[in-house]
From TrEMBL, chain A:
Name of protein: 3-oxoacyl-[acyl-carrier protein] reductase
Ranges where the Ketoreductase domain occurs: 206-385
InterPro entries (UniProt xref): KR_dom (IPR057326), NAD(P)-bd_dom_sf (IPR036291), Sc_DH/Rdtase_CS (IPR020904), SDR_fam (IPR002347)
Alphabetized SUPFAM superfamilies for the sequence: NAD(P)-binding Rossmann-fold domains
Origin: domain of life: Bacteria
Molecular function, one GO term: oxidoreductase activity, acting on the CH-OH group of donors, NAD or NADP as acceptor
Family listed: Belongs to the short-chain dehydrogenases/reductases (SDR) family.
NCBIfam families according to UniProt: PRK08261.1
UniProtKB/TrEMBL annotation, chain B:
GO molecular function: acyltransferase activity, transferring groups other than amino-acyl groups
Protein name (database record): Acetyl-CoA C-acetyltransferase
Keywords: Acyltransferase, Transferase
Keyword Acyltransferase: yes
Source organism (scientific name): Marihabitans asiaticum
Family as reported in the entry's similarity comment: Belongs to the thiolase-like superfamily. Thiolase family.
Amino acid sequence: MAFDYGKFVSGGLGKQLATTLGLPRPTTLRRHTAGAKLINGAVLVGGHGDTPVADRVKTLLADAGVQVATQASTSVAGVVVDMTSVESPADLETLRAIVAPALKTLAPTGRIIVIGRPVEDAATVAQAAARRALEGIVRSIGKEMRGGGTANTVLVAEGADDAVDATVRFLLSGRSAYVSGQVVTVGKPVGSVEAPTDWDKPLAGKVAVVTGAARGIGASIADVLARDGATVVCVDIPAAGGPLAEVANRIGGSALQVDVTAEDAGAKIAEHARARHGGFDIVVHNAGITRDKLLANMDADRWASVLDVNLSSILAMNETLIPAINDGGHVVNVASIAGIAGNRGQTNYGASKAGVIGMTSALAEEVRAKGVTVNAVAPGFIETEMTDKVPFATREAGRLMNSLNQGGKPVDVAETIGWFSWDANRGVTGNTVRVCGQMLLGA
Amino acid sequence: MASPQPDQTRRAAILGGNRIPFARQFGPYAQASNQDMLTAAIEGLVARYNLGGQRLGEVVAGAVIKHSRDFNLTRESVLGSSLDPHTPAYDIQQACGTGLEAAILVSNKIKLGQAESGIAGGVDTSSDAPITVSEKLRTKLLKVNRAKGAGAQLKALGAIRPTDLGIETPANSEPRTGLSMGEHMAQTAKRWGITREAQDELAVASHRGLARSYDEGFQDDLVTSFKGLARDQNLRPDSSMEKLAKLKPAFGKGDDATMTAGNSTPLTDGASVVLLGSEEYAAEHGLTVQAYFVDGETAAVDYVHGEEGLLMAPAYAVPRLLARNGLTLQDFDYYEIHEAFAATVLSTLKAWEDEDFCKDKLGLDAPLGSIDRDKLNVNGSSLAAGHPFAATGGRIVAALAKMLHEKGPGSRGLISICAAGGQGVVAILEGA
């Protein structure tokens, strides 16, 4: 068993040592479980001037049985500040005045959500400056927060307010445990925004395809989508058939052994989903590999295999999958922090994952007419069998180089993918959201 | 003799199959029991065909080498699987014919309307073998067990002599002749003049065919990896006549012995299962009918008195099956003749070409004739895959059904499997 710093400093001698030396001590994050409350405490809701989104949030909280607070106190677990009406930097004082006292008393694993409007839609230069300033404030708050709390910005386009609920719910809940310092853009919905009958089963009746589902993050994605009500087609290479069957049977899904780089992979997946489940609503392109080498030593095989599996295969499969996906469906791609920040020894991997991010925004526009959303998740340091094999110092550095002082779990990535797949979330498309605990790399 | 009309029954469809890769004895599955392997094969099938929580008509399977504790092997495997625990199961055993016989039984119930769906399969381990004690020791130990009181038990124990001690493991030999299967086969090979070269050629073709089928992805929806093994361990894609020629004979005596470890199947561990159902069941569950299980036949020969070779029973079963279905030996797109030994396949084919054999032994006016060898064991057979006895039938049925489905409706395949005790199980499948 590899040494785990987080466990070491959580009690006994390790705890004493860390406290004496002033070393970071990671908090156990609040993670969603079936039937869990949206948030454990009241939510303080405020804003500047007209607050159309804050008013929606109050209704949403009432629906979810969460108390709305009017001032900071120890019973407050979250703060939502509607800054959609800011005109100039002077208006930012409102944000300081609401959040500063709240930070002193906020319960552990608290949530700060700041709502703004997209910078590019600003009417004046001063408004653009003020809107962009929100991002700087929130990212800094994220770094100041303690106790496993997160801070995120939500930019809601004019006229898209009714599409914001899914994102606010996601960010308040334990589903976003490892998402911090992020900017989510809610735009004009691609189709009707449909609240689920039961917010605990937001994917009820849906059919999802998950590639690379045999282990690690892929298996977790399958688990989460199934927990939230979806029937999952679990796809992986034939050599992973045993563990793939285990995942499929655990969640009552079906297993399909196919190499995503095979020419007929898309057709096989579409046909399987059609014949067995009457079609599909969600595709998660998760399958990926690494073949690390410094570029100076990188051969063509390593280069090509990573690009083939991680990027080209998705483009090829989408030729078949996009026409076949049910209208109003959701495509989610798994990118990586390496596609944003780059990584030594990973030119091939970085290329593929940055490519995924580019593909995501372009495809989102292309399939808007079909009512399909396309988003990407970019995981940071996620604890898997793969990271267990990383040398101690590198691993601990990876774990600690973020605002939450710990690595994320596969389920954190899976939860974000689940949120992208909700029919209530049709306003979020073309986004790449990092699940990295606000990692310092590429921030 | 009046047979029931075919229109009184319905068709039994083969909907798919699954097996774990076959491993060599004491290989990656050395610690796996029959129950572990059969459960794994069922779990792969359940995942592939989305059978989780479903109550199937029945599951029928068996093992040739079996621990006495495994009296309910198949039912226990079902209980350990993701199938609805209300799915009944039973064990059968007909030596190497077990898997195919299980498929005949399940398909018959479906044809008669007694079941809508079912799984047929088989499993065998040559690694996790049961051990028995000598017959004398066993009798005396039973006496100890029966004895009342410590004194009586000690007395009974005292009756055990050092010469009683002995451990027996299952042997691949015939109880009535004491000869191993290989020695029996060597006699038959000699009788039919099967050359070493012809046997080695068949072995090479088997390895190449199976290797190609893996490379082409044909096995992708037939096999599910187990304990880190993703392909049959015995498979040698680079097998060649030159390499096989170097091997020393393993069976038979003298300079003209032809059978080697290369053209005989090794001891292996593995499991396979096949999903069968009515056409209505298939439609309801969104499953594609790959082939129909048309008919099956079994035969047995008297090898004990030397009248016929031990593994020649399929040579008798096939003509009876052909006659009943109004077919000739040439009316098939694929032939799957189980490669217990390369010589088994070649002796069987030669017998069907032989006028005297067909006349005297089969009572036919003319020989069955020869077959197009390009249609034989196209994707390899037991020489390459290995042969965990009861698992071979399921492997062949699932693979042939897929081949026939790819060939198209109305295509036909013939299966022939020899079995210990001088038995043979054969069947006809038709593509859908």
